[in-house]
UniProtKB/TrEMBL annotation:
It comes from Agrobacterium albertimagni. The keyword Hydrolase applies. One of its GO terms (molecular function) is hydrolase activity. The keyword Hydrolase applies. Keywords: Hydrolase. Pfam families: FGase. Gene3D superfamilies: Zn-dependent exopeptidases. This is N-formylglutamate amidohydrolase. InterPro entries: N-FG_amidohydro (IPR007709). It comes from the Bacteria.
């Protein structure tokens, strides 16, 4: 899913990839520690037994072990890249299910942004009339708390940024994965030329 897409993009765009080594159900690093969604007790309608009734000490331990090292690494790499004279671009990649609470989702690719929409705007403009149904801030948006990584690492420093959501039925096989990854790489590279 998302990690495979991110790996393809990292290679295609010659970018650095920082990723979680664990399921987002254990800790979703794209949520702040105080958010219930960081360690959700449910995923859609399914209980997550390992997350039920976590004590404050257990939540703190997970945050220290999983969230803090991830974001420290992202911060370190951004500082290194900026220190080399380059302007970092922050792209986060996620997948979503084609059906949520019994309702089909028509969107195939979501291009999400917070208050800085430069990169998203350029990508959406390039995606118009393309082979996929691409929508702004869908199936989630900043009001859902999903832009935490962008808020933390990109917005304060004015770095171009975007969050990409891909419907996971489109990347269930190698052909789909390659097609989506190539499409996204083209969208991103073309958009970066316009916002640079």
């Amino acid at each position: 899913g998302a990690l495979q897409i991110a790996r393809h993009l990292s290679i295609s765009l010659d970018g650095l990839l920082v990723h979680q080594r664990f399921s987002r159900l254990i800790y979703d690093c794209n949520r702040p520690p105080e958010s219930p969604a960081a360690m959700p007790e449910k995923s859609e309608i399914y209980a997550i037994p390992g997350n039920l009734n976590l004590s404050p000490a257990e939540r703190y331990a997970r945050t220290a072990a999983l969230y803090v090292p991830f974001h420290d690494r992202v911060s370190t790499e951004i500082a290194r890249i900026a220190g080399e004279g380059a302007k970092p671009v922050i792209v986060t990649v996620h997948t979503f299910t084609p059906v949520y609470f019994g309702k089909p989702r028509e969107v195939e690719i979501g291009i999400l942004h917070d208050t800085d929409s430069r990169l998203a705007d350029a990508m959406l403009e390039a995606a118009a009339g393309g082979p996929y149904r691409v929508e702004r801030n869908s199936p989630y948006g900043p009001e859902d708390g999903v832009t935490h990584t962008l808020r933390l690492h990109a917005l304060p420093q004015g770095f171009a940024n975007v969050m990409i959501e891909v419907r996971n039925d489109l990347v269930r096989d190698e052909a789909g994965l390659k097609a989506i990854s190539a499409y996204l790489a083209d969208l991103i590279s073309g958009a970066l030329e316009r916002v640079a």
